[in-house]
Amino acid sequence: MGSSSILRRTAELVGAAVVGGAVVLGGVALFHGLDGHTTTVREVVSSSSSSPASFVKGHALSINEIYNRAAPGVVQVSTTSVVDVNPTDPFGFPIPGFEQQETQRALGSGFVWDKAGHIVTNYHVVQGAKTIQVSFSNHDSMRARVVGTDPSTDIAVLKVDAKARALTPLGLGNSDTVRVGDSVVAIGNPFGLDRSVTAGIVSALQREVQAPNAYPIDHVIQTDAAINHGNSGGPLIDTEGEVIGVNSQIQTGGTSGGNVGVGFAIPINTVRTVAAQLISNGKVEHASLGIIGLPIDASVASLFHFPVDHGVLVQSVKGGSGADKAGLKGGTTSVVVAGESWLVGGDLIVRADGQTVGSLERLRDLIAAKKPGDSIRLEIYRGTKKMTVNVELGRQPTSAR
User: Fold this and answer.
1) Strand stretches in 19-69, DSSP E
2) What's the burial of 62, exposed, middle or buried (CB within 10 Å: 0-12/13-18/19+)?
3) What does the pLDDT look like over 134-145, one tens digit per residue?
């Protein structure tokens, strides 16, 4: 592997996703949440934006069948929020003393989670909302309240006071069994257009995107099914009519802000875990190790003369964190390789709870399976000396920024 393969983005190691497979990703590109917020995704591959007219017959449902079954459970989420507005002069400078408040309205999507009236959507759809209205396919509209939100996975749970017989919960699939090339359907409200359906395929798996609070979300599903502004929070559905993801972000082309065939959905296995905690506790507490780390590969190991060819090299340790209290050491000497800065001299994490650590994603997965206060056993190299360290995990801070 060449020196360019060592280019990696640093990431604070926190539990922002659920346990699953992981791969080492490289390359960074800019993307946008469906509300226009900029984010990043790694290892992006272009894909066709064409959509099939129908799915292969068999036990698989047609697009029309999927839509007819799922549409009653897909909702439009309308929010109002109050923001501060500062008028500016012709040169763009704020005019003192003329500050005022303005009511803004926004639209998104969501879907019925259960007969108790819980609705799942994206956190960024309801972020800062003063009022929330949920509209069903029969055009019934009712006030919704926020049960809980998790910015780290961009998921929110709402609740409406509706009779159980009036609610159509969508069936949930298993995102761990999704394969590249699988046919999928997206249902939502793009640009405020009620109950629109688009179809495509799963273009890629194991993507990593950035949550609204700047933490990484792992194992994200990439699709070429057209999703646009207003689709946020809507379901991505497989050919059996089950939800495999929550549509959340898109790649945009130029200044149009429209879909170019690359969209991203939070995997339903992540959503399932997060929603259960939000319904039960109103919040999700993610465990945090408290370090910044970089993954190494064979070329990096050879360059720096590490005793192993895999692991996560500790760059820095947050003061007062579990890693700090356990005595983990960060890097001490700055080295620039292929344009990227490395801090060497710190601990090299090679295993966690007996599992090989070959990437940041794998270490995050192992941490995500735990709660704040749980312990994790790390096998590390400090120079050439192999050691075992037990770390009591802390709570993830509100923001990674």
Assistant:
1) 28-33, 38-42
2) middle
3) 999 877 889 999
φ/ψ of 203, rounded to 5, equals -80, -30
The answer on pLDDT for 236 being more than 90 is yes
Query: Two tokens at 294?
Result: 């970089």
76-129 confidence digits (pLDDT tens): 999 988 877 677 767 777 777 667 677 788 889 999 999 999 999 999 999 999
Active-site residue, selected from the candidate residues 35, 150, 154, 347: 154
Q: Which residues contact 401 (CB under 8 A, 6 or more apart)?
A: 213, 214
Active site residue 232: yes
CA angle 241, 275, 173 (to 5 degrees): 20
Who contacts 98 (Cβ-Cβ below 8 Å, separation ≥6)?
A: 86, 87
Catalytic residue among 35, 47, 124, 310: 124
In whole angstroms, give the CA distance from residue 12 to residue 310. 18
DSSP state of 68: H
Q: Which CA distances in Å does 193 have to 130, 172, 304?
A: 23, 25, 56
pLDDT tens-digit map of 311-365? 999 999 999 999 999 999 999 999 988 788 899 999 999 999 999 999 888 999 9
- Enumerate residues 6+ apart whose C-beta is below 8 A from 372: 285, 286, 287, 288, 393, 394, 395, 396
Q: How many whole angstroms separate alpha carbon 248 and alpha carbon 32?
A: 9
Output DSSP code: residue 352.
E
Helix (H/G/I), strand (E/B), else coil: 126: helix
- C-alpha distances (whole Å) from 236 to each of 60, 248, 312, 313 are 15, 10, 33, 36
**pLDDT tens-digit series, residues 243-285:** 999 999 886 665 555 566 788 999 999 999 999 999 999 999 9
What percent of the chain has a predicted confidence (pLDDT) above 70?
Answer: 81
Active-site position among 109, 203, 232, 316: 232
124 is a catalytic site residue:
yes
Q: How many residues does the chain have?
A: 401
H or E element that contains 132: strand 131-135
Q: Which domains does the chain have, with CATH numbers?
A: 3-16+286-395 (2.30.42.10), 28-69+169-273 (2.40.10.10), 73-86+96-166 (2.40.10.120)
| Helices and strands of the chain, counted as H and E runs | 6, 24
